Amino acid sequence: MLWRVPESADERTEWPVSPPPPWPAQVRATLWWHRSTPAAAEYGPDGPTLPITLAMMVDYLDSPVGPYREILASPVLRRGLIPAMAVPFIAVDSEPSVHGGRAHWRLPKVLASFSGDVTGDFSAVGGGWKVATSARPRGPQLPIIGGLTFAQPGDDGSLSRATARLRGKFRYARVGVEAEGPTLSRWLRPGTHHGIVITSGRMSTGPAK
User: Fold this and answer.
1) pTM for this one?
2) Distance CA 209, CA 207 (A)
3) Selection from 148, 157, 167 nearest residue 74 by Cα
């Protein structure tokens, strides 16, 4: 069984099959972060962690399974030389992407509905939960080169690690957040947070190791 919070629970097992990684994609996105709430550790992974919550809304303009949109969040970060996301909540509006997340990366993807502009006012709605963001970019557009690593636990205690590498352009932003749900309201802090908008970028998510 995939590690998850109730918002990412889905008993469906059959999904359209997706191609294996790497998954290259052209993206636009809003990312934000804040100090973790006292309840966040309850929904984080076992082991040493950093009390930082990292979340993002992503618009995949193309990908091996076509265009789709996504929300994901890590209640805390795994401590390490390079801190890694641990993602118990992730949703998309593409059935093949659900398969890809679950089969290739141990990501507990579920289906959701999205509306708006991912780098402005945007919302994601699923079964019993909703997240709305309002990004307000400030300052100049700058180049960005980097990556995000996530490490997902398995039932046997092993970790499945993968990295998404990004090259593109970004702007600093203040991001307003509203979150509703069985657990999201406890660890995805409402209010206005530091963030960035990826105005354009090329990302490639590699295989899990």
Assistant:
1) 0.97
2) 6
3) 148
- E strand or H helix that includes residue 59: strand 52-60
Give which of 55, 70, 74, 179 is closest to 128, Cα–Cα.
Answer: 179
* Phi, psi (deg, nearest 5) at residue 83: -55, 140
Write the pLDDT tens digit of every residue in 74-105: 999 999 988 999 999 999 999 999 999 999 99
- What is the CATH code of the structural domain delimited by 22-205? 2.40.400.10
CA 194 from chain center: how many Å? 16
CA gap 80, 34 in Å, rounded: 19
The domain segmentation of the chain, as residue ranges, is: 22-205
Contact residues for 197 (Cβ-Cβ < 8 A; gap 6+): 28, 29, 30, 31, 119, 135, 137, 170, 171, 173
